[in-house]
Specification:
This protein is α/β, with parallel strands linked by helices and 387 residues long. It is built from 14 helices and 13 strands. A seven-stranded mixed beta sheet has the order 2-8-7-6-5-3-4, with helices on both faces. Strands 9-10-13-12 form a four-stranded antiparallel beta sheet, covered by helices on one side.
């Protein structure tokens, strides 16, 4: 679809979960599922539930579903179906992939990650450093919480093997310049290792155009089920020795990184989630989210301490803030009493909170396309009452 106008009422009608007073600003922690995703999962369990590899009907339909899921994921990511792998979660996938990659590391090698990263793209590298003689470096941030590209460049050398970074920060919403990060990584001879978990509901992913080497994300952040999804360049995945059982397929190469039987019912939900996003079109989603984000930024009370970029340029509509005189937990509880769902704490953005000096973390409100202008005004009114 190419329309730039989103019929939010029609969108919300596709979600039974939204038929309530509670306004969901918790998308960064997991989005709601449209009914078609829920129905696809239930339909698979009712009609097709089987393992792969047998000659009977339901097994053959499951094989077809597995193939279709890889094709739909490839469509969503902008790659070939063989470069896609599924797993329990993004975190599980990232530990598995980083462990396979670690077999290529040598003493003295270095890894760089950013202070914007979710810990799922930090701790895997820290654990490798714990086991091996390598160095992990943290790339700093600017005053308005953009990635400090000069600091990134200064921390790269001929020893750098990976630059790990988020396509969008799950904490403060910053969306780094992907192509710039990739170019700096590749100029240093390093891999560009992207975490697109938080970006996935907010914009089109195109791993081919971006030229990232590895990208991980989670369908439950883009209106699908709880599972993990990863991309790796074919030649890269083929070059590593994966941790897997011997009978597991070696080709396509993405299958090397899928441990055991897939969650077939969740693959059915993934297919439906990709089709759902495609039915709306990114132009309409982005225009609606941008308008709501601008409404929030224009109306947030001056007494609220907002962290990060103060416009919708270079960011997604995820907002991190504190209300002076109240702890983040107190604010989150007060908003919950007003039927407004937000998060509080560090949301696994440990380095970001350290950078901000926030021991208790902050409140996080995330907007996605099924939110309404009325919900944003309700949130702003509630913050004004608390300020």
């Amino acid at each position: 679809m190419s329309t730039t106008t989103l019929d939010v009422a029609a969108v919300r009608a596709r979600f039974s979960a939204l038929d309530r007073r509670l306004a969901f600003f918790d998308g960064p922690g997991g989005t709601q599922c449209p009914d078609e995703v829920i129905d696809a999962i239930a339909r698979y369990l009712r009609e097709d539930n089987a393992n792969v590899g047998a000659p009977y009907e339901t097994s053959q339909r499951t094989v077809a579903l597995v193939d279709l899921a890889h094709e739909k994921a490839a469509q969503f990511l902008g790659c070939s179906a063989g470069e896609v792998a599924f797993g329990q979660s993004m975190t599980a996938m990232n530990f598995l992939l980083t462990r396979a990659f670690a077999r290529t590391l040598r003493p003295g090698d270095e890894i760089a990650h950013t202070a914007l990263d979710h810990d799922a793209n930090v701790s895997p590298w820290l654990e490798i450093a714990h086991d091996m003689d390598i160095t992990v470096r943290v790339v700093g941030l600017t005053e308005d919480l953009e990635l400090d590209y000069a600091d990134l460049e200064s921390k790269l050398s001929d020893r750098t093997r990976v630059v790990a970074f988020p396509v969008a920060a799950n904490s403060v919403g910053t969306a780094p310049d992907v192509r710039r990060v990739v170019q700096l990584a590749h100029d240093a001879g390093a891999l560009a290792w992207a975490d697109a978990v938080h970006y996935a509901p907010h914009g089109r992913i195109d791993v081919t155009a971006w030229d990232v080497d590895v990208l991980v994300c989670s369908p439950y952040k883009f209106f699908g089920p709880h599972m993990g999804m990863a991309f790796g360049k074919e030649e890269l995945l083929a070059s590593w020795r994966p941790y897997k059982v011997r009978p597991a397929a070696d080709f396509p190469v993405g299958h090397r990184y899928e441990l055991g039987t897939s969650q077939h019912e969740l693959l059915a939900g993934l297919v439906a989630a990709v089709d759902y996003v495609d039915s709306l079109g990114w132009d309409a989603i982005l225009a609606h989210e941008r308008a709501l984000g601008e409404t929030f930024l224009a109306g947030v009370p001056e007494t609220v301490e907002l962290y990060g970029i103060r416009s919708m340029e270079g960011r997604v509509p995820t907002f991190c803030f504190n209300v002076p005189g109240h702890s983040p937990e107190e604010v989150a509880r007060a908003l919950a009493e007003r039927d407004l769902a937000v998060w509080h704490g560090d949301y696994y953005a440990i380095e970001t909170m350290r950078h901000l000096g926030l021991e208790e973390g902050a409140v996080r409100a995330g907007i996605v396309h099924y939110n309404t202008e009325d919900e944003v005004y309700r949130l702003l009114d509630a913050l004004a009452e608390l300020s």
